[in-house]
Each structure stands twice: as C-alpha cells, then as structure tokens.
Amino acid sequence: QPLPAALWRPRRDNPPQPIIRRGRRKPGGRAIARSAAAASPPAASSSGSGALSPFDRGLKRKQKNWAALQAEPAKCDYLREEVGGRIADRVFDIPRTFPLALDVGSGRGYIAQHLTKETVEKLIQVDIAENALKNAVESEIPTVSVVADEEFLPFKEDTFDLVVSSLSLHWVNDLPRAFKEIHQVLKPDGVFIGAMFGGDTLYELRCSLQLAELEREGGFSPHVSPFTAVSDLGHLLSRAGFNTLTVDTDEIQVNYPGLFEVMEDLQGMGESNCSWNRKPLLHRDTMLAAAAIYQEMYGNSDGSVPATFQIYYMIGWKFHESQARPAQRGSATVSFGDLAKINGLISRGKK
C-alpha cells in the first residue's frame, strides 16, 4: 500500500550528511568479535558539522538484512518480541485511539504484532533493512513499509499521533538529532514511546572478553559498543522538545549454554558490533579463555551462563495547549502542615 504523498517531507537539494570518522582496521580474517552485542552512541555525541559517527550504518544494515534472511529468523527474536510487547502495553495504557502511528526501526514488526486496530488504525514501519520489512510478522493493523534512516525521517512536520521505537535507537550516530526528528514528525499532543539498551547490558560478556584479551594479548579493545546513560536520557528528550517525560529501567536475563551461544544469538538478532573502532579479529585461545572466564565468574549451578539486557523505557509528549500544567506558585489552598488533618479536610469537602 503506497504512502500518501501528503506525508512526505519535501526533498532538499542539500540534505545534511553525517561526518564519518573511520577507525583503522586490520585486513583479512573474519571478525569473531563482531558478534558481541549492541549498544548506543555516547550521549555526549553532538550534532552539526562536527558530529562524530561511531557506528558503521552500512554494516549495520547488512547485519540486519542478513539476520532477516536466515531460515528461521524468529528463532532469535525472543528479546525483541518481549520488549515489543512491553512497548505495546504502554500504548494500551493511554486511553485513546491513534489514527496514524510510526514505528522507527521496526525491524520485522515486533511492536505491531501486539497492537490492535482499536488502538492504532494505521502504522508506518520504518527501518534501514529492507529484508526485515519484507519478512515482517503478521499484524491485524494496516501497515506501510518505508526504507529510511532513523536519523533522517522523510515525513512532514506534525504528521503522526504516535511514534514508537523498540531496540533500534542505540545504533544511531546522532541520538539528539534522532529525538528531534521524532519530535518534529509528531502532532501537538502526540506521544513518543521508546525502548533502548541500557548501560549494564551484556556486562558479563564485556568483562569476560576484556579479562581474556588482557591476559592473552596484553591489552584489550572494546567489543561491546558504548551505551547511553539513563541520567542523560531525560535531558536529551527534554532538549529535543518533549515534556511530561517518563523514564524507567528494567532488566531481562537470558540463560545460555555458554559464551559462544550468546554471541551466535546476538548475531541472529542483527545486534553484532558495528563500531568503526571494532577489532576485526579475536584469537582462538582468547575466545576459549573468555568462555572459561564467563563460566567461572557468572556461571549458574546448572552449567548455563546468564546474559543481562538492561532496557530503558521512555515516554515523552509534544506540547499542546490542552495538556495539564503545573499550578502557579503560591496558588495552593492547603499547607503541608495540614497534611496530618487530611481526613478531616476531605470529610468537610464532601459535605
């Protein structure tokens, strides 16, 4: 189903382009460390002509396309489906119907499968990976697929009643800009509900790889990408123009047979590392040492090992005159000193 022309943002002659800072890479060899997972750009990365680009977005697109073309792509979707369901629960908590919604970084439609037509009448799904959109899971909501970058949404201002995003924004190079783009396409009194990985995600894998590499090779490189701190998330949303903010955290722990299974599933999720400064190769003995360290430091009594995924959930509204505002300073009619007499005050009010 084609997207109505009225929703598209007018094409500009000179659209802004991110400045890419390419890290040094050693030639040859398969990058075993690329299966180490995911995270987000530093919250301090700035926008504009001096912006840093820590992630190779072209490689991330290839990783997600590869994962979507596997024989059983749903085999590694358990985490995305769980978080997508929790995002949908937050949408259901808002007692209204959204005529037009946008899913930023939708992947195979992990949020759409949990929504209903009574809540969202039409959903636009946006992702950089066309194979993920082609192999989207079924949903009862009418959907339209658009291949686009999360940092450069091709829609007009004040278009959508709702914008959702699940486990995608941690791979954008310019998170402040992405939040501003989302705020721009929202209608006044529209709401953004999103989720992204937090700072404690895969700390077991990170520590095991670093200790093993330090022991076997005399130093270590980052194999798990940097994450945005929860203390910065509210500030970034506020700076983008959102108000009535809610930010909360949650943890999901998954048990695996060992380190190699953790990395295999991360690759199947399309969550392999795509940092420009990633190390292209980890030696075999380093990987074996990391697996032993993982088991020794974090192993469960049944022989499995845990992998922790910390999730940040965020809700932000675009300003509208009808929204509730704080009362004016000094307008209170009851003193805090009268709180002990609150029952009596309520009784008098009822009379």
UniProtKB/TrEMBL annotation:
Boundaries of every Methyltransferase type domain copy: 102-193
GO biological process, any: methylation
CDD domains xrefs: AdoMet_MTases
Localization (cell): Mitochondrion
Chain intervals with Low complexity compositional bias: 29-54
InterPro entries per UniProt: Malonyl-ACP_OMT, Methyltransf_11, SAM-dependent_MTases_sf
Protein keywords: Methyltransferase, Mitochondrion, Oxidoreductase, Transferase, Transit peptide
Domain of life of the source: Eukaryota
Region (Disordered), start-end ranges: 1-56
Single GO cellular component term: mitochondrion
GO molecular function terms listed in the Swiss-Prot or TrEMBL record: oxidoreductase activity; S-adenosylmethionine-dependent methyltransferase activity
Keyword Signal: no
Keyword Ubl conjugation included in the entry's annotation: no
Main location: mitochondrion
UniProt family annotation: Belongs to the methyltransferase superfamily.
Protein name per the record: Arginine-hydroxylase NDUFAF5, mitochondrial
Species the sequence originates in: Strix occidentalis caurina (northern spotted owl)
